[in-house]
Structure formats: C-alpha cells, structure tokens
Amino acid sequence: MTTDEAVVLRVPARAENLALIRLVVTSLAEGLAELAGNRLDDLRLAVSEACANAMEAYSRAGRSGAEVVVRCLAVPGRVEVEVHDEAGGFDPGRLEPHPPVEAPERLHHERGLGVPLMRELAEAEFRAEGGGTTVRLVVA
Predict the structure, then answer these.
(1) Distance (Å, whole) CA 114 – CA 45
(2) Beta strands of 2-66 (E only): which ranges?
(3) pLDDT (0 to 100) of residue 102
(4) What is the CATH number of the domain that holds 67?
(5) In this predicted model, which residue has the larger pLDDT, 80 or 90?
(6) What span, in angstroms and rounded, lies between the C-alpha atoms of 123 and 41?
(7) What domain count does the chain have?
(8) CA torsion, points 109, 16, 69, 12, in degrees to nearest 10?
(9) H/E element holding 138?
(10) What sections of 61-131 are H helices per DSSP?
(11) DSSP code per residue over 55-118
C-alpha cells in the first residue's frame, strides 16, 4: 500500500481516539469497499485491537504524546489497514498460546487475546519496522 492511494491518519496514542479511527475506517469500508454485515464488524474489531495494542505499547514505553499512524486503502470488496507505532516492537511468534476457550484455566487469561483475534478476523501480518511494529490487516 502506498501513501498516495490511502487515507492516512496520524493520531495521538490515546484511547479516546479509537472511536475516530473506527469511524474513518468504517466509512471507507462501507463506501468504497462496500463491506457490510459481519465482515464490517470483523474489520472494526481487528483495527480496534491493533490500535489499542499500539497505544498500550507506547504507554509501556513511557512515550506519552506519541502518534499511531493508520493507513487505510479501500477498493471494491477489500480493505487494507496498516497500523504503525514506534514503541519498540514485539515478536508475535513468541506469544504464549492460551488454553482452548472451553478449558476452565482459560478464565485466568484476561489479556493477550488481541493478536489471535486479529488473525481470526482478518488476514493479519506483523512486521518489525521503524523502531516499532506495523500490523497489516486485510478484510475482503
């Protein structure tokens, strides 16, 4: 995805900006990509998780005032969203798997479900770059 064909948002890494990001991505997805129903809901949730993770990474790094960059490209039948932070990055391959959802011990895992959720709802790719992480989500 190149910047000249995408809508780019640069927002302060604060939770109150999640609603704005969801609004912009949803508008593009409904209008240009003509996504509807469950796939639109999947996109909203996956983007929310990616942005919340970026914001939390900045918070852990003590980087208040930093920006999350969201690039969104919508074409008929497909939406691509990239969420980028510069908060140090992580290796999603090193995440510990959670117990199955029906296992009682799963109740002890309140956090760490964002990456598996993004992978379930969208085609998800995680790249270390620019001193942080870029998450690329594709929903068709």
Answers:
(1) 9
(2) 7-12
(3) 73
(4) 3.30.565.10
(5) 80
(6) 14
(7) 1
(8) -120
(9) strand 132-139
(10) 114-121
(11) HHHHHHTT-TT-EEEEEEEEETTEEEEEEEE-S----GGGPPPPPPTTSGGGGG--S--HHHHH
Average pLDDT over residues 131-136: 95
Between these two residues, 74 and 3, which has the higher pLDDT value?
Answer: 74
State the residue range of the domain holding 29: 3-139
Residue 29 confidence (pLDDT): 95
- Spatial strand order of the sheet with 67-75 comes to 7-12, 67-75, 78-85, 132-139, 123-129
- Listed range (84-88, 96-100, 120-124) with the worst mean pLDDT: 96-100
Query: Which tokens go with 70?
Result: 């969201």
> pLDDT grade, residue 101 (50/70/90)?
low
Are 78 and 139 within 8 A, CB to CB? yes
Q: Which amino acid is at 97?
A: P
